[in-house]
TrEMBL record:
NCBIfam families: pepN_proteo. Its EC number is 3.4.11.2. It comes from Hydrogenophaga crassostreae. It catalyses: Release of an N-terminal amino acid, Xaa-|-Yaa- from a peptide, amide or arylamide. Xaa is preferably Ala, but may be most amino acids including Pro (slow action). When a terminal hydrophobic residue is followed by a prolyl residue, the two may be released as an intact Xaa-Pro dipeptide. Gene3D superfamilies: 2.60.40.1840, 3.30.2010.30, Neutral Protease Domain 2 (1.10.390.10), Peptidase M1, alanyl aminopeptidase, C-terminal domain (1.25.50.10), tricorn interacting facor f3 domain (2.60.40.1730). This is Aminopeptidase N. Belongs to the peptidase M1 family. InterPro entries: Aminopeptidase_N-like_N, Aminopeptidase_N-like_N_sf, PepN_Ig-like_sf, Peptidase_M1, Peptidase_M1_dom, Peptidase_M1_pepN, Peptidase_M1_pepN_C, Peptidase_M1_pepN_C_sf. Pfam families: DUF3458, DUF3458_C, Peptidase_M1, Peptidase_M1_N.
C-alpha cells in the first residue's frame, strides 16, 4: 500500500476539457466508449499521460482517430508519445466492465436490477480510464443505451437533450451537463423507476424541475423528502443568496449504498434510508435525518460542486462546511427556539460519542490530514463533524453576517475552481478584516493541521472584597499518532455568570471596559490566560462553553450544588443539559470506580429530585426533557476513563436506569399519559419531542416492571404497540419491551416482522433492535448469530449488514465485550468476510476495536489477538489494512 502525502500535491500534467461517454448498459458486460479532448498543462514539465483505471477490460485506444501505442503500468494506462505542444488532442478509450459482479458498490453497479454509480472518491476509474482527481474539471456529454423494457428510465447529470428508440427493443438518452465538474460528481442511473415531480419557481423567476425517483410502490413515501428539497432550495437562497443553478434536480434512491447519499451534480443518489419516509414506516429520527441529508446533498451543489476540492486532503473544505450548513438548515427549520437547542445538543452528542474517541484513538487525524493510504477511510466523523465545528467557530468569531459575507467572497473568488481549506479561511478572514479570525489567522488554522481534542481547564476565584471574579483558562492537547507536540489553539469560549438564584450577572472585564451583557465570547489563544470580571456582587456559578462554542473537553470543577443551579436556571439550554449530564457522569464514574460489586443505588437523592423537577417542569419542552433524562452513553462514560471495563460500565448504567425508573415511577406514569396522544402524525420537532418523551417513559415503566414483576406496564406497552398510529410510537413501544427484557417482547417482535415483512428499511430496524438490545447473561451474541441465519439476512446489502453486525459490534458495548472473547472472534470473522467483497463497509467495521488499548484485562489481550488475526490474513484490502495497521501500531 502506498501512502499519499498532502505535501506531494502536484498539478495535473494534462487537462481534460470535454468528455463524451457512451454506455451500452448490460449487467453482465457494459461497454463504455470514452472520447476525451485533452491538452497538456503548460505549467507542468512535459511528461507521459497516466490515466487511472481499476478492474477494467481495455479493448482499444485511439489518438486523434488513429491507433496509438500505450502500455499498462499495473492498472494505470500510460501514453508516452503524445503530440508535443499545447494543442488539444482527442483520445478514444473503449473498455468494458461487469456491473453485476461489482459488490464493492464503487463505480458502476447493479442494485435490484437497476444500474447506479458511485464515484466519490475514486470510483470513476472503475468506469473508464481517467485522471481520477478532483482538480481535473471537464464538460460531460453522456449517451446511455439499454434495453427499454428492463431499463425504461435513463438518467445522467445535467439536461436531457435527446432520446429515442433503437433496434432490438433498446432505447437511448443523451444528457449534457452545462457545468464543468470533477469526475467524482459523475452519475448515471438506469432502471425501472417512477418519480415524484415538482416544478418550482425560484426568486430570479426561473423555473426548475425537482424529481425524486424510487421503485414503483414507494412513491407515497417521498413526500417528506420532496418537502425537504423544496425547503433546502428556499433556505440556501434566503440565508446565503445561493440559487439553484440547474433546470433539473434529481434524487434517486437505492437500497444498496455504502453510505448515506451522494451529491452528484444534478443527480443525487441516496440510500433509501434517507429518502423513503411515511408515518407508518419511518420514525421521527428517520424523518429528521431525511430532512438533513436531503439538505446536505443539496447544499453541496454550491459547497462542493461549484467550488470543489483541489485534492482529497481538502475533503473537509466541502464536508465540514456542508455539515455546518445542514445543521444550520435543520435549526432554521425549527419553529421554536427550544427546538434549535435540542438539535444543537444532539449534534454535540454525536461529536462527543463518536468523534472524540476517534480523535483519541489510532485513527486520529486532523480535519485536513497530511497522509492517507485509502481515502475512503477519511470520510470520518473528524472530517465531517469536527470539520463542521471548526466552521461553526469561524461563524462565532466573525458573526452570522460576517460569515455570510465571507461565503460570498469565497464564491466570488473561487466559483468553478478546485481549491484548498486555506482558500476558504482566507476568504472568511478577508471579508472580516477586523475580526479575531483575521487578526489571529495562523493560530486559528491549527484547527486544520492538529489532531486531537484540546482540553480547556477552568479555574475560578472570587474575591468578595474586590467584588471581582477571575477565571483562569488553560489549554492542552494530548499527543496523537505522528503529532507529539501541539501548539495552542485559538478557542472561542462563550460564557455567562449566574447567581445562586439563577439570575444572570452582567459581564464586565475591568472597570474601564464596556458592559458585555450577560453572554460573552472570550478568545483563549495562550496556554494560560486569566480573565477578571468586575462588579460581581456575589460568588457566581460559571456557565462556560455555552452552546458548546468549541470542540473541546471542558475540565472544570463544579460542586453538585453549582451544577444543580445551572440545571435549574441556566439561560443557555446547552449548558443546562450539560449540567445534568455532568451530575450523572459523576455518579456513574464513582460507581464504576468503587471497590467490589457496583453499588445498588448509584444515583443520589439530589440527582433524582432534580430529574423529577425537570420531568414535571411546566415550561420546558418535551424534547429537551427527554435529552436531560437520558443518561450519558456507555461509550461516553468509557471515554472518561483510562482503563475501561465495558461490562462494569454497562452494569452501572443499567443499574442507574433501573433506579431512575423506580424512583420516578409516578412521574413516568404521568409523563407517559401526558404525552402519549398526539393526534394525526406530524413530523415537526415539537410533536416529535412529545413522542420521544412518551417513549422514554414507557421504557422506564417497563424497566421498573422488570424489577417489581408487575405485568401492568408491559401489557400496556404491548397494547400501545398494537394500537400505534405511526412508526415512532410503535417502535418505541417495541423498544420498551425489548430493552427491558420483557417476555412479551418476543410476541411483539414476531408481530412487527409479520406486519412489515417486505419493507426492507423497517426490517432493518427489526434486526438492529435485537442486535443492539441490552445483554442479559451473554444472550445477545447467540441471538446475533441466529439473526444472521434468518431468511431476510443479506450480508451483501450494506444496510442489512449494518443493522445486525454494526448494531452489535459498534453500538452495543455491553454485549460485544465479553469475558470469553467471543464477541471479538465474531468481529474478526465478519471483517474478513466483508472485506472479500466490500472493503469500505469492512473498514468501517474494523474500527469497532479502535480503543482496544484502553480496555481492562481480559478484554485487552483478547482484542489484540483478534486484531492480529485480521492482520495475519493475506490479501486484505488497503481499506482494512490501513485501519488494522494503525490500530496495532
Ligand atoms: N460526499 C459523499 C460521501 C462519499 C463517500 C465516498 N466513500 C456524501 C456526502 O458527504 O454528502
Ligand atoms: Zn457531504
Amino acid at each position: 500500500p502506498v501512502t499519499v502525502r498532502r505535501e506531494d500535491y502536484a498539478a495535473p500534467a494534462y487537462w481534460i476539457d470535454t468528455v463524451d461517454l457512451s454506455f451500452d448498459l448490460d449487467p453482465v458486460k457494459t461497454r463504455v466508449l470514452n472520447k476525451m479532448r485533452l491538452r497538456r498543462n503548460p505549467d507542468v514539465p512535459a511528461q507521459a499521460l497516466r490515466l487511472d483505471g481499476e478492474e477494467l477490460n481495455l479493448a482499444r485506444v485511439m489518438l486523434n482517430g488513429a491507433g496509438c501505442s500505450f502500455k499498462l503500468d499495473g492498472e494505470t494506462l500510460v501514453l508516452e508519445n503524445l503530440p508535443e505542444g499545447n494543442e488539444p488532442f482527442e483520445l478514444e478509450i473503449f473498455t468494458t466492465c461487469a456491473p453485476e459482479k461489482n459488490t464493492q458498490l464503487m463505480g458502476l453497479y447493479v442494485s435490484e436490477g437497476t444500474f447506479f454509480t458511485q464515484c466519490e472518491a475514486e470510483g470513476f476509474r472503475r468506469i473508464t480510464y481517467f485522471l481520477d482527481r478532483p482538480d481535473v474539471m471537464a464538460s460531460y456529454a453522456v449517451t446511455l443505451r439499454a434495453d427499454k423494457t428492463k431499463f425504461p428510465v435513463l438518467l445522467s447529470n445535467g439536461n436531457l437533450v435527446e432520446e429515442g428508440e433503437l433496434s432490438d427493443g433498446r432505447h437511448f438518452a443523451k444528457w449534457v451537463d452545462p457545468h464543468k465538474k470533477p469526475c467524482y460528481l459523475f452519475a448515471l442511473v438506469a432502471g425501472s423507476l417512477v418519480s415524484r415531480n415538482q416544478r418550482i419557481t425560484t426568486r430570479s423567476g426561473k423555473e426548475h424541475l425537482l424529481q425524486i425517483y424510487v421503485r414503483p410502490g414507494d412513491l407515497e413515501k417521498t413526500e417528506h423528502a420532496m418537502n425537504a428539497l423544496i425547503h433546502s432550495v428556499i433556505w440556501d437562497e434566503a440565508r446565503f443568496g445561493l440559487p439553484l443553478d440547474l433546470e433539473r434536480f434529481m434524487i434517486v434512491a437505492t437500497s444498496d449504498f455504502n453510505m448515506g447519499a451522494m451529491e452528484n451534480k444534478g443527480l443525487n443518489i441516496f440510500n433509501t434510508k434517507y429518502v423513503l419516509g411515511s408515518p407508518a414506516t419511518a420514525t421521527d429520527v428517520d424523518f429528521s435525518n431525511i430532512e438533513s441529508v436531503v439538505g446536505h446533498e443539496y447544499f453541496h451543489n454550491w459547497t462542493g460542486n461549484r467550488v470543489t476540492c483541489r485534492d482529497w486532503f481538502q475533503l473537509s473544505l466541502k464536508e465540514g462546511l456542508t455539515v455546518f450548513r445542514d445543521q444550520e438548515f435543520s435549526m432554521d427549520m425549527c419553529a421554536e427556539p427550544s427546538a434549535r437547542a435540542v438539535k444543537r445538543i444532539e449534534d454535540v452528542r454525536v461529536l462527543r460519542t463518536a468523534q472524540f474517541p476517534e480523535d483519541a484513538g489510532p485513527m486520529a487525524h486532523a480535519i485536513r490530514p497530511d497522509t492517507y493510504v485509502e481515502i475512503s477511510n477519511f470520510y470520518s466523523v473528524t472530517i465531517y463533524e469536527k470539520g463542521a465545528e471548526v466552521i461553526r467557530m469561524v461563524q462565532t468569531l466573525v458573526g452570522r453576517d460576517g460569515f455570510a459575507q465571507g461565503l460570498k467572497l469565497y464564491f466570488e473568488r473561487h466559483d468553478g475552481q478546485a481549491v484548498t481549506c486555506d482558500d476558504f479561511i482566507q476568504a472568511m478572514a478577508d471579508a472580516n478584516p477586523t475580526s479575531e479570525l483575521a487578526r489571529q489567522l495562523p493560530q486559528f488554522k491549527r484547527w486544520y493541521s492538529q489532531a486531537g481534542t484540546p482540553v480547556v481547564h477552568a479555574q475560578a476565584a472570587y474575591d468578595a472584597a474586590q467584588r471581582s471574579y477571575s477565571l483562569t483558562l488553560s489549554q492542552s492537547c494530548a499527543p496523537t499518532p505522528g503529532q507529539i507536540q501541539k501548539e495552542p489553539y485559538l478557542i472561542p469560549v462563550t460564557l455567562g455568570l449566574v447567581d445562586a438564584t439563577g439570575a444572570a450577572i452582567p459581564l464586565q472585564l475591568g472597570s474601564d471596559s464596556p458592559a458585555l451583557g450577560s453572554n460573552h465570547t472570550l478568545v483563549l489563544n495562550e496556554t494560560h490566560q486569566t480573565f477578571t470580571f468586575v462588579n460581581v456582587e456575589t460568588e457566581p456559578v460559571p456557565s462556560i462553553l455555552r452552546g458548546f462554542s468549541a470542540p473541546v473537553v471542558l475540565d472544570i470543577e463544579l460542586s453538585d450544588a453549582q451544577l444543580l443551579t445551572l440545571l435549574a436556571h441556566d439561560s443557555d439550554a446547552f449548558n443546562r443539559w450539560e449540567a445534568g449530564q455532568r451530575l450523572a457522569l459523576r455518579l456513574a464514574l464513582t460507581a464504576v470506580r468503587a471497590e467490589g460489586a457496583p453499588p445498588a443505588q448509584p444515583l443520589s437523592d439530589a440527582y433524582l429530585d432534580a430529574m423529577r423537577t425537570v420531568l414535571r417542569h411546566p415550561q420546558l419542552d418535551a424534547a429537551f426533557k427527554e435529552l436531560v433524562l437520558t443518561l450519558p452513553s456507555e461509550t461516553y462514560i468509557a471515554e472518561q476513563l483510562d482503563v475501561v471495563d465495558p461490562q462494569r460500565i454497562h452494569a452501572v448504567r443499567e443499574t442507574m436506569r433501573e433506579q431512575l425508573a423506580e424512583a420516578l415511577h409516578g412521574d413516568w406514569e404521568w409523563a407517559f399519559d401526558a404525552h402519549k396522544n398526539n393526534g394525526a402524525y406530524q413530523p415537526d420537532a415539537t410533536s416529535a419531542g412529545r413522542r420521544a418523551l412518551a417513549g422514554l417513559s414507557l421504557t422506564m415503566l417497563c424497566l421498573a416492571a422488570r424489577e417489581n414483576g408487575s405485568p401492568v406496564w408491559p401489557g400496556k406497552a404491548l397494547q400501545h404497540f398494537k394500537d400505534a398510529g405511526n412508526m415512532t410510537d410503535r417502535f418505541n413501544a417495541l423498544l420498551a419491551l425489548v430493552s427491558s427484557g420483557q417476555p412479551l417482547a418476543q410476541d411483539a417482535l414476531a408481530r412487527f416482522h409479520a406486519l412489515f415483512k417486505g419493507d426492507a428499511l423497517v426490517i432493518d430496524k427489526w434486526f438492529a433492535l435485537q442486535a443492539g438490545a441490552p445483554d442479559r447473561g451473554g444472550n445477545i451474541l447467540p441471538a446475533v448469530r441466529q439473526l444472521m441465519k434468518h431468511a431476510d439476512f443479506q450480508m451483501k446489502n450494506p444496510n442489512r449488514a449494518r443493522s445486525v453486525i454494526f448494531s452489535y459490534c459498534n453500538a452495543n458495548p455491553g454485549a460485544f465485550h465479553r469475558n470469553d472473547a467471543a464477541g471479538y472472534v465474531f468481529w474478526s470473522e465478519r471483517v474478513i468476510e466483508l472485506d472479500a467483497f466490500n472493503p469500505q463497509v469492512a473498514a468501517r467495521l474494523a474500527r469497532a476495536l479502535d480503543r482496544w488499548k484502553k480496555l481492562a484485562e481480559p478484554y485487552r489481550t483478547a482484542a489484540r489477538e483478534s486484531i492480529a488475526r485480521v492482520a495475519a490474513k493475506p490479501n486484505l484490502s488497503n481499506d482494512v489494512r490501513e485501519v488494522i495497521t494503525r490500530s496495532l501500531a
